[in-house]
Write a structure and sequence with these properties.
The chain has six helices and no strands. The chain is an all-alpha fold. The chain starts with a helix and ends with a helix.
């Protein structure tokens, strides 16, 4: 059928024979493949970003442990348990990443709204678009905050005062 359409158009319209006819379904399949590829690439970029930001959080928290060694020693000498110290640093890590997640989600939403205003398109708001990034930010902070929290909890009070 495709060849019949091409021949009819060439003969009736008296044009060159370098035209092609394609069906909507073939274009839809091609577009679907392109969108799948874009989704995979963006997912990989997001995963890499989460890992890099996780290591940054870990680095910040390890620096915080080092800076607050004396404070940790005082708390331990006053009776704080390892879990109390570890929980404090884990909560701090979660708070930092929660704040970052909220700022990122708000910024992304603002950019999306601005884009819709500029282009005149309608925006479809979904609560998951706000909640998921914040959730993954906090989860990343908790996962990458475990080691610094563990290290802070295991700190020897005598070593803390010596340094």
């Amino acid at each position: 059928m495709k060849n019949d359409i091409e021949q009819t158009v060439v003969s009736k319209r008296d044009i060159k024979s370098d035209i092609t006819v394609s069906s909507f379904l073939s274009q839809k399949d091609t577009l679907s493949e392109i969108l799948t590829l874009i989704t995979v690439i963006l997912t990989a970029i997001a995963a890499i970003s989460l890992i890099v930001s996780g290591f940054s959080i870990m680095n910040i928290m390890l620096s915080s442990v080092k800076e607050r060694t004396r404070e940790i020693g005082i708390k331990k000498s006053l009776g704080a348990k390892n879990t109390d110290i570890a929980f404090e640093f884990l909560a701090e890590s979660a708070a930092i990443t929660f704040t970052g997640g909220v700022i990122g989600a708000a910024g992304g939403t603002a950019i999306a709204f601005a884009g819709c205003l500029i282009t005149g398109t309608e925006i479809f708001f979904n609560a998951g678009i706000i909640v998921y990034p914040i959730f993954f930010a906090v989860l990343t902070g908790l996962i990458f905050g475990v080691y610094p929290a563990y290290k802070a909890g295991k700190l020897n009070p005598c070593d803390a005062f010596r340094n």
